[in-house]
Amino acid sequence: MVLKVFFPSCCSSADSGILIGRWISEQNSAVILAVVHFPFIPVQVKQYLGEVQRVTKVSVSVLGSWSNSKQEKEESLSEFLEDLGTIFCHEPWIQISKEGDSKFWSCSILQKHSKNPQEEEIILVYYDQRKVMLSHLHPPLDTAGQRAEDASKLSAIFDTVARSQVLFMTDRYDEGPIKLTHWQSDGVEASIIVELLKQASVPACMLLTFLLSLLSGICRSRVLKFWPLSFLWSKLSTCEQLGHRLQHLQVISSNKKAQNQNQLMRKANVFVSLLIDVALGILLMSWLYRKNRIGHLADTLIPVADHVAEELQDLLQWLMGAPAGLKMNRALDQVLGRFFLYHIHLWISYIHLLSPFIEMILWYVGLSACLGLTVALCILSDIIALLTFHIYCFYVYGARLYCLKIYGLSSLWRLFRGKKWNVLRQRVDSCSYDLDQLFIGTLLFTILLFLLPTTALYYLVFTLLRLLVVIVQGLIHLLVDLIDSLPLYSLILRLCRSYRLAAGVKFRVLEQQDGKPLRLLMQINPLSYGGVVQTYRLPTYSCYPRDSWASLCKKLFLGELIYPWKHKGDKQN
User: Fold this and answer.
1) Considering the domain boundaries, does residue 223 fall inside one?
2) Domain of residue 69, residue span
3) Total domains in the fold of the chain
4) Could you say which of 42, 93, 253, 568 would form a disulfide bridge with 85 (CB–CB 3.0 to 4.6 Å)?
């Protein structure tokens, strides 16, 4: 059999002593966690390991002895290390020794209590204890068979080192009876700034939680459930984004400790996303209020609205004539054209009525950028929706009229074939009609058929205008979704400290010689950037249309209304 010994590279220059770690019998592997130096009292070592095992729930024990011949040159050292196996009674007893300045190591196994000792091949695997301790293993999602078994073995190694954090909290400056060598033996890694922020975050989170509870209580009150307010809350993108950011603040200010690494990373991603969003919003706000840019924007808005209205009037005048040489029904063409021209006239009057207040409205809207760039973008989307409300009305009128004629023609076409639509059974059944019904149906079918090209042309033009507005709003919402869902903290961590997000490991051969243990170096393979985004992507409230092109074309042909970007997105952990 092959016995694998995972040895921390930070202990390669440690003084002679005993090896403590965890024995994984299922894998026939030993994970060395630290080296206890001489002198020590075996009873105190056992008591210390018992306390560590009680806190970490990891079966930590003495696995063998470590001899650094460069530090200790006594002849009786090897015999003394062998005798330690009878005191701590671990089977098998691992003996690792470093031969001075030589690059070769010797590793042997003692099985004193075994009746039939077998010669085992030994593989000595070095690993960076700090990187393994701070990393989080992400096995492939499509693991199956042998790959799944390998991932579970690696998870056991990573889990053993991660759960033994208490063991690494003692350094050589402690005045305890036991001296250890591990990755933090020269001093525990810490930051004064981080510790102060941790202490200050507790009252800040409590105050923020109290304020958010009041705000969420107001949002859930019955006053907001009445018709006008509930309608605005469901239709305005700004309200949806504010509710989404309120949920993010509740996640950040929660007093509950993260149960696992995924929850911790999600909190960090939400915090960094919110921080960058607010920073970009403040930059936008500072840019808007410099050099009176809001006044210039307000002065430009009215001429742009007038220009759009003039272009629509020219388009309607073109449709009321002979567009592209098409022969239209003149009576219906004139009625529809005048109807839409009257709406444009109302819209121009409405814009000029609001013109004295536009600069003040934009000034207050600019202040909302301090809530984040995404809130400002959602307000921009709502402003575009309000400024193009007349185009939306044209689209709805044209779609309803076109849909009415399409369904009327399909119903009358079934009448010619002796069919009818059974509403109760939701199917087409046979039916017999008398002569009067067929005559009236023929007249109606002829009228609707000859009026269809005029209605279809108006519907096509206004649908294209509506799709143009929807595309602009869609690009804005895609940018909002990108800021909301992008795991920025995970991407920064992948860029700066890639070992923190481990997808697996690879082994490099350091030494291979007959009669000597095979020495390997375990290196961490970082998670790819695509894997980081897929694993830690944050949930968003809005998403672009999920319909296929065939479904979208079917809706456009039948005249069904399109409501993009207003349904809930996918929720993730």
Assistant:
1) no
2) 3-181
3) 1
4) 93
